[in-house]
Amino acid sequence: MAIVTVKRKLIILGVVMVTILVAIVVSSVPRTQSTVFFSSAQAATNATMPPTLKATFYVTNIANRAVFLQIAAIERHRDSAWIADTQALPTNTFRAFGKVGAHGTVQLSFELPHDPVPTRLRVLVSPDATTVQKAQFALCRLWANFRGEGQYKQLWFRNLAVSTYQVITPEIP
């Protein structure tokens, strides 16, 4: 019985040490600069009620990894300030915008409620996770399972993206 307890403590210690090592490596990696760029928007309204605006952008990714894009906010220019339109997109809600491959350019469109004021989109950029980031995520899940705080069956994800930064699109006319 005492041997099992010692082995369990050594396993816990090993997992903690590996987690700390991964955290140090990840935190020492320099923060990425913006690698996603948007063209000027092409906008078209439709005659539905209520009217919607379809904004189309060419999005270029100069990074070595693919990035997944999500709309984090629709911002309107009112009273000399940019304010998030929480009726068009509620707070803490993200809408898929698309994926751009490494060194790629794609055309992406997004429909939003039409409002005759200057509008822009706040976009969350999530590059594909590195092997180190995937390992850190898996270790966190394993550690939660071990402590009894989680019951994760899948620890490793082949298609994992990590939220890194936000960019703002050019103004939509």
What does this protein structure show overall?
The chain is an alpha+beta fold. The chain has two domains: 30 residues; 136 residues, Immunoglobulin-like (Sandwich). It contains two helices and nine strands; from the N terminus they run αββββββββαβ. The longest helix has 27 residues. The N and C termini lie far apart (72 Å).
Key descriptive features of the protein:
single chain; 173 residues; alpha+beta; Immunoglobulin-like; 5-stranded antiparallel beta sheet; 4-stranded antiparallel beta sheet; 2 helices; elongated
What are the SSEs and their pairings?
Layout: H1 2-28, E1 36-38, E2 42-45, E3 52-61, E4 67-78, E5 81-84, E6 95-100, E7 104-113, E8 119-127, H2 131-147, E9 165-168
Antiparallel strand pairs: 1-3, 2-3, 3-7, 4-5, 4-6, 4-8, 8-9
Helix pairs in contact: 1-2
Derived from helix and strand composition plus strand pairing, the structural class reads: alpha+beta
Q: State the CATH class of the largest domain.
A: Mainly Beta
What is the percent of helical residues? 25-40%
Q: Pick out the low-confidence regions.
A: none
> C-alpha Rg, in Å?
22 Å
Largest β sheet strand count, sense and barrel closure: 5 strands, antiparallel
Distance between the amino and carboxyl termini: 72 Å
**Quaternary state of the chains:** single chain
CATH architecture of the largest domain: Sandwich
Strand percent estimate = 35-45%
Global mean pLDDT: 85
Q: Could you say what the CATH topology of the largest domain is called?
A: Immunoglobulin-like
Short description:
The chain has 173 residues and is an alpha+beta fold. The chain has helices spanning 2-28, 131-147, and strands at 36-38, 42-45, 52-61, 67-78, 81-84, 95-100, 104-113, 119-127, 165-168. Helix content is 25%, strand content 36%.
